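Hi everyone,

Forwarding the result from last night's run.
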Amino acid sequence: MRTPFIAGNWKMNTTVSEAIKLVGEMKPQLESTSGIEIVVCPPFVSLIAVREALKGSRIKLGAQNMHFQEKGAFTGEVSPLMLAGLCDYVILGHSERRQYFGETSEIVSRKVKAALKVGIIPILCVGENLAEIEAGRTKEIVTTQLVESLLGVEMPGGLVIAYEPVWAIGTGRAATGPQSEGVINLIREAAAGLYGQAFGQDVRVLYGGSVTAENIAEFVGQPDIDGALVGGASLKAEQFVSIVKKTAQMKKV
């Protein structure tokens, strides 16, 4: 069985003190929740402080991005070596990185390889935008992004994939559960084509896009959706805790 997975992507929100406060509000309520993997992904400046705040906790730490080079003249960037030993996970290929910072799937594949090399597990994001879904290109876009983002990557142990329909991120317009399940089935087929049927069945695939405590059940109630990559709702302790608890309950073996 695949262990359910909830990750909170805080994006460019929270000061260091706010990050510590948010973790402090979540931590006691999440400690009693079993059978689920929980990850929080604060901004770079808060990683060390949040790691300290999570000591002795079952909550894991993730970064929101990283460069593919280990060091060099890349002003403002953070390398995999800087994150190694600090983070368990790193979000790669997020739609905002692709849209606002020009990241291609080729760049993402280099980042995936760099993360795996230093023992950090990628949360690899794929998804189509509004024009693409309206043109009926969802399968083409999502599978191409996945294949190209894993180009040259040998068996990516532990990899987590997040399907994030770009048209549903930060818009309040979430996809439906069955709709997302259909796309995630396509993702599993593409993953199986790359690494074999067992990998396609075993890899954890999340939904991301306007996830809330009110709609999480619609997604994790689907058999092939293993959890969620949560954006805005992960900045509200009560919402995030509710999402985690509802997922753990619905996916309980």
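The chain has eleven helices and eight strands.

Cheers,
N.
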